Amino acid sequence: MLKKIIQILEKGLSYSKYTIMLYARPYKGIVKKEMALAKLVSQNVLQIGCGAIPFTALFIAQYSDCHITAIDKDPRAVKAAKRTIKKMGLSDRITVLKGDALNFKKTDHTIVFLALQAAPLKAIINHLTRPDIQFIARIPNVNYRHIYDALPPEIEIIDKTTYKMKAFDQSWLFKVKEDTL
Q1: DSSP character for 18?
Q2: Measured over all CA atoms, what is the biggest interatomic distance in the chain, rounded to whole angstroms?
Q3: Secondary structure (DSSP) of 35-102
């Protein structure tokens, strides 16, 4: 139910630059911490589950020279995300595509940001994994773990950061353990 409420809210807020930035504001510091974990400078970034207001992609584009490909399987979210990116003047830095991460063709992305709502995580990670790829995932706090998919045990945590949000309180930078590739 919470996921559905967030989807509806984001779609409604995506019509105004003001409401986009108001909604995205609490995430600015989180995305900056995640960018520091990944040492983002000018990499090609893939964002899985961008939603109607792809705030992760927006902040990465604003604070780095990265190009971001943001995908979502909900066609209405993709339409709203494209509108959001255009309103923010970042169409040259962010590409929004409709698609399922499980069918996404492997490309030259070196870092993948996984939305909290992305699922099934194990299958997505296995599909996108290469020896040179790293992932960032937001970790639900203990009260919300029953709502979101869990990361698989085959990961090797490289680094992590913490913050105070209601549904999630950590982000992990990780890769798949080499012996499981």
Answers
A1: H
A2: 47
A3: HHHHT-SS-EEEEE---SS-HHHHHHHHHSS-EEEEEES-HHHHHHHHHHHHHTT-TTTEEEEE--GG
Q: 28-38 and 55-63 helices cross at what angle (nearest 10)?
A: 60
Say whether pLDDT at 103 is over 60.
Answer: yes
Is the dihedral angle over the CA atoms 98, 124, 175, 34 positive or is it negative? positive
- pLDDT-derived band of residue 15, with 50, 70 and 90 as boundaries? confident
CATH numeric code, 2-129: 3.40.50.150
Q: Is the pTM of this model over 0.85?
A: yes
Place of tokens 């604003």: 62
Mean pLDDT computed over 42-54: 94
Output the pLDDT for position 113: 98
Q: Would the pLDDT of 2 be above 80?
A: no
